[in-house]
Every structure is written in C-alpha cells, then in structure tokens.
Amino acid sequence: MTSETVLAVAAKGGDFLIEDRSPRDIFTPEDFTEEQIMLAQTARDFMQKDVLPKTAEILKLNYETIRELMKKAGEIGLLAIEVPEAYGGLALGKVTGALASEISAMEGSWAVTFMGHTGIGTLPITYFGTDEQKAKYLPKFGTGEWISSYSLSEASSASDALNAKARAVLSPDGKNWILNGEKMWLTNGGFADVYITFAKVDGEQFTAFIIDKGSPGVSLGPEERKLGIKGSSTRPVILQDAVIPKENLLGEIGKGHKIAFNILNIGRFKLGAGCVGGSTVALKAACEYAKERSAFGKKIADFGLIQSKIGEMTSRIFAAESMAYRTAGMIDANLEGVHDNATSLKRIEEYDAECSMVKVFCSEVLDHVVDESVQILGGAGYVEDYPVERYYRDARINRIFEGTNEINRLLVPGRMVRRALSGALPIFDAAMALLDEPRPEGRPSATDAGFLAAEVRLTKGAKKISLMLLALAAQKFQAKLQDQQEVMGFFADVAIDTYALESALLRTQKKAERDGEATAGPFVAALQVFAEGAVSRIEAAARQALPTIESGDMLATCMEGVARFTDRQPVATIPLRRSLAALTLDKDGYPF
C-alpha cells in the first residue's frame, strides 16, 4: 500500500515480549527519507505561515477560515498522504501520515480538524468503500474541496459503541435507508460536507453509513462547549427519518464494528504521534520562558529543579517518539507489497496492542509535559496571555479520544491473550521457561559491561516480568480474566513501559551503530533517565498485581523474580537530566 522505502522489519504483533530485536530491525526518526523530510518541512511552513497566524480565528470557530486552511492543506498535498494514487492521492505510508499528524499538533484545535479529516473521516471510505464511493469522495477529500467528519458514540453508549440506539431501516421502495437517532461528538461536524456514522439496521445489525450534508432529515445540534480544543467543531448529528441513498451504506450490513475498530486502531498510533508533537510545542514554550524569566538574581533556567523538569520532559518525549515511529515503521513494513484492502487491514490489525500502547503512553507523556510547562511558567502559565494555558486544556482530551486510556489498557492484555490462545504468540511457553532459568549468583547488575549493557539487561528483565504477570493471571482467572480489570491494568502498565523502554534502547543503539558511540551521548542520557523511571514503575506495578494472582511460596518466588529482574546499580540521574536540560535549552526546545 505504500510507495515509500521501508526501513523496518515486519515483526509479529506482541512478540517484542518474547523476541530480542536488532537496532536495524526498527524504524526511528533518524531514518526519515528525503521525501519525508521535505514533506515535513512543507507541513511546518504551512503551520507557521498559514495556520498559527490564524489561531485567534480558529479558536473563535470561524468555519470559513478553517475551510480555507483545509483547502490550502489540500493544495500542498497534506490531505492526500494516505489517499490511493488511483483517486488523486500520494499513497504514502503510515510513517509519513504520523509525521504529518505530529506537525499538525503545533496547534491543538487544528490537529483535531486535520486528523479528524485525514484519519477517521477519510480512511473508512479508503479501506471499506465501494469503487463508486471512493471515486466520488476520495479525490475531493484529498484536495480539501470536501471535508469529512466522523461520529461513533451516543449519549447512552459512549465507549460501549456497539450498544448504539440509532436505527436504520430500508424504505418501502428499497431505494433508501431511513435513519433515526442522535450521534454525539461529530468531529468537524459544523463545517463538514460528509458525515461518517453508524446505526443498527433493523435495530440489530451495527452498520456504517456515509451521510451527505443536507440530506433530508439530517440536522446538527449546537457546538459543544469544551474544556479545550475550542477551535475544533464538535456537534451532535440528529437523524429524524433521515433519507440516505441505499448506495451510501459503507461496508457490509452488520459489519460496522470492523470499520469502527480498525479505523480507531489506525488512529491510535497517529494520535500518539500527534501527542509527541504537542509535547515538543509545550516544551519549547517552557524553555523560552525559563531562559527569559529571572528570579533571585538569575534566570530560572539555571535552577536545578527547573533543569530537572526540562530533562525529564525531554527524556519522556524521546521514549514516546521512539515507540510511535517504531510502530508506524512496523506497520509500513507489514504492508509492503500488499495491494488489497482486506489484507492491509489484517496486516495493520497485527499491531493492535502496540497501537493501544502508543496511544496510552504518548497521551500521558503529553499530560506530564503540559503540566510541567505550566509549573515552569508559574502564575503566567495559568493565564491566557501565555499559550501553555491552552496547551494544558487541549491536551486533556487525548486520554479520552480513540477509546479512553482505561479501555486501551484493557485491550492490551486481551489481545495478547487472544493471540496466545490461537498459537500466534507463544507467550505462555516463554513464561513457563522462566521457571527453569538458573538463578544467578550475586547481583547481576555487578556484571554489566559494555555499551548500554545495563539497559539491555533491564529491558530483558522487564519483558520477563510482563510475561510472568500475563501468564499467571491468565492461568488463574482464565475466562474470568476480563473481570480482573485492575490486574489487567497493571499488566498493561508494565507492557507499555517495557515497549517504550526497548524502543528507546534500540533507537539509541542504532544511533551509536550508525554514527559512533561518541555521537550518541544525548541519546544515552535520555535513555538512562527514562530507564530508571520506567523500571521503577514496572517494579511497583508488578508488586501491586502479584498478591492478587498468587499467594504463599509461589508469591514469594514471583516477588524474588521481580527483585532480580529489576536489580540495578544506582544511576546518577541528576547530572543526566541537567545535561539533557542544557541541550534542550540550547536548542530552544526538543533536541532530537
């Protein structure tokens, strides 16, 4: 599906827990092609010259201004990145799509509009539309002549999307669908030409529909008054005996869940990339203020606690960026040579757990960064005179978008157990093998030698903890595992930090292999700061989960294993954060 050079290996979904990857197997931001770098510069120029100067108009929800900007984005190719060439698109890969999403997040409301159109608004027709539907809609979506929107939830269902109340019945003459109901949170609804939404045929079969603006019986409710992203349009769509042509049914009757879940899955890792972009914007604002603001006779950027914050933010963004683009690269590699939509969707679905992990981790990194940015600005960060106040409010939605973080935390173990039971992911065998591992004598951390040896060992230990938790929980609770949401959540936290840690490690190793260890110093600092925090969180999560799963001697054995797998020599993270802060302040923002 992609015409770009693929620089990653198409690993199996979830197998990062049981397979050791080579740095050469993964895609990193340092692997961007010339084409991707050029497109990124085009996107940045557009944001800086066209979008950001219109921020005030965007925040006022000036539909005309937003449509003009979307049309301009279409003219320079930003809306057609993932549209097939047959319909006037660029047919570029998921890495490029993620990169465009990241850059769009220079302004939060605009990012929602842009990603709502290019992602959940366009991809349902790209992957599930008929040839006639694609020919009608995709060329105009790619140019920005038409804007698309999307609504899945209802007031009574929220995350339980399949519990929809909206109904669809075929008209007596068989020419139209008659829809009744109300869908909430139609992203881009106020200025969109097309609404992608869902209803149950005959009240039973969950099905997707394409609704054209102005169709009989279709109206919009008022704009939602939101905490943040105030410059994005969010309105309910009201269906009162709405007449929708029969040919506007999208996909198959009763298969709407396949559209909803697959498209949300794609959206999750791109949302993660957007959160990386939002994080870098907030970090830049914090750095600029810290270098200008004086207190007690010197710039606050010179204070240790401010440097600690900046160094920690930089480290977390590094990990988030690493896992987001690693995931996008794996998807592109898995799509290489595929030319049909059904196979493409299966290949993308391979990484459903990774996509959920990226969404959760990156959105929570963004929340950390915007919170610390407000803190660095102090009282100034709490007033509208400075943009970090807006960044703080805009960020909050990302833990709710594309499935709440709680839902996504439950999806991670659920999908891995499902793969394990099907034989596609032998995590249970790997977990049982842990029981036969010989116990090392002395402290294993004392034997670390070589470049990043400690981080390699800790990453392997984190994987072992993940395997142990999931296997023991699945064995004890079996079919009732889904009722143990707290245990599943703790496992997800361990798996997410493990995936982020390995992604940052492999990226750092790849940098050292390519350019020499001497050039990788900032990468190493970011990795080591992140590793110390991640391993501490992994250990804490395991200690909270295990007493609910095991007891007695087995619990003692498991706890001993956790201690052994996380054992490490103390790392002086204070100077590491200071070094990262110095680099970040020197670059006026995220330095990687």
Describe this structure in words.
This protein has 592 residues and is of the alpha+beta class. The chain has four domains: 15-147, Acyl-CoA dehydrogenase/oxidase, N-terminal domain (Butyryl-Coa Dehydrogenase, subunit A, domain 1); 161-250, Butyryl-CoA Dehydrogenase, subunit A, domain 2 (Beta Barrel); 256-404, Butyryl-CoA Dehydrogenase, subunit A, domain 3 (Up-down Bundle), CATH 1.20.140; 407-586, Butyryl-CoA Dehydrogenase, subunit A, domain 3 (Up-down Bundle). The protein has helices spanning 34-51, 55-59, 63-75, 94-104, 108-121, 123-128, 131-143, 256-292, 304-335, 341-349, 352-377, 388-395, 405-422, 427-434, 453-477, 485-515, 521-549, 552-566, 573-586; strands at 148-150, 167-170, 176-187, 194-201, 205-212, 218-220, 234-245, 249-250, 294-295, 298-299. The strands form two sheets. Strands 1, 2, 3, 4, 5, 6, 7 and 8 form an eight-stranded mixed β-sheet that branches. Helix 8 runs parallel beside helix 11 and helix 13 (405-422) packs across helix 16. The relative contact order is 0.11.
Rough shape?
globular
User: Which percent bin holds the helix content?
Assistant: 55-70%
CATH architecture of the largest domain: Up-down Bundle
Supply the CATH class of the largest domain: Mainly Alpha
Order of helices and strands: HHHHHHHEEEEEEEEHEEHHHHHHHHHHH
- Beta-strand content estimate: 5-15%
Number of helices: 19
What is the H level of CATH, i.e. the homologous superfamily of the largest domain? Butyryl-CoA Dehydrogenase, subunit A, domain 3
Our measurement of the CA-to-CA distance between the termini, rounded to an integer number of angstroms, reads 29 Å
Residue ranges: pLDDT <50 for 5 or more in a row? none
Strand-pairing-aware structural class: alpha+beta
Mean residue pLDDT: 95
Q: Could you say how many structural domains there are in total? A: 4
Number of strands: 10
For the report, how would you describe the main beta sheet? 8 strands, mixed
Radius of gyration: 24 Å
The CATH topology of the largest domain turns out to be Butyryl-CoA Dehydrogenase, subunit A, domain 3
